[in-house]
C-alpha cells in the first residue's frame, strides 16, 4: 500500500493532538502550542488513509527546522519516519535542515544519522527534565 505525503493545516488540529498524546505521552504539545504552530508554520503527514507519521516544521527562506517528527507506536520500525524525512528533503531540496533530539533517544539519533544529518553540538541540561539536547544539521541535496 502506497503512503500519501500531504500538508496538514488547522483543520487537522484534533488529529495532531491525538497523535501527540500517543507519540509523546507526558511530553505532548498542548492544543494552544499546536494551534499556534499551524497558524505560523507548516506540518506534514504520511499515511493511507489515516496519518501514521507526522512532522511539525518551521520554514524560513534558508532553512527548515524540524520541531517534531513522530510515528504512531503501532507503525514504528517500518521506515515511515525516514520516508517522511526523504519527502521533506525532496520538497525543500535547497534548504539546510536542523533539529534537536534528546541524547538518550538513540533510535532517533540513528535515524537522523542514516538520513544524512550530523551532530553540530550538545546542549547540557537543555530539556525540563535536565537531559542534554543534540543539535543536528543536514546540508541541502544540491
TrEMBL record:
CDD domains per UniProt: NAT_SF
N-acetyltransferase domain segment(s): 3-141
Pfam family, one: Acetyltransf_1
Entry EC number(s): 2.3.1.128
InterPro entries per the UniProt record, alphabetical: Acyl_CoA_acyltransferase, GNAT_dom, YpeA/RimI_acetyltransf
Organism domain of life: Bacteria
Gene Ontology molecular function, alphabetical: acyltransferase activity, transferring groups other than amino-acyl groups
UniProt keyword annotations, A-Z: Acyltransferase, Transferase
Protein name: Ribosomal-protein-alanine acetyltransferase
Organism: Leptospira biflexa serovar Patoc (strain Patoc 1 / ATCC 23582 / Paris)
Gene name in the database record: rimL
Amino acid at each position: 500500500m502506497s503512503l500519501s505525503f500531504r500538508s496538514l493545516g488547522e483543520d487537522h488540529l484534533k488529529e495532531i493532538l491525538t497523535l501527540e498524546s500517543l507519540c509523546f505521552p507526558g511530553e505532548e504539545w498542548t492544543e494552544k502550542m499546536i494551534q499556534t504552530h499551524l497558524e505560523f508554520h507548516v506540518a506534514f503527514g504520511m499515511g493511507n488513509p489515516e496519518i501514521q507519521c507526522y512532522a511539525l516544521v518551521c520554514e524560513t527562506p534558508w532553512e527548515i527546522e524540524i520541531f517534531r517528527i513522530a510515528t504512531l507506536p503501532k507503525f514504528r520500525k517500518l521506515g515511515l519516519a525516514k520516508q517522511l524525512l526523504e519527502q521533506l528533503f525532496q520538497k525543500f531540496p535547497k534548504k539546510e535542515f536542523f533539529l534537536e533530539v534528546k541524547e538518550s533517544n538513540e533510535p532517533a539519533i540513528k535515524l537522523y544519522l542514516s538520513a544524512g544529518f550530523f551532530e553540530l553540538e550538545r546542549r547540557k541540561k537543555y530539556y525540563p527534565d535536565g537531559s542534554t539536547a543534540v543539535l543536528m544539521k543536514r546540508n541541502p541535496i544540491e
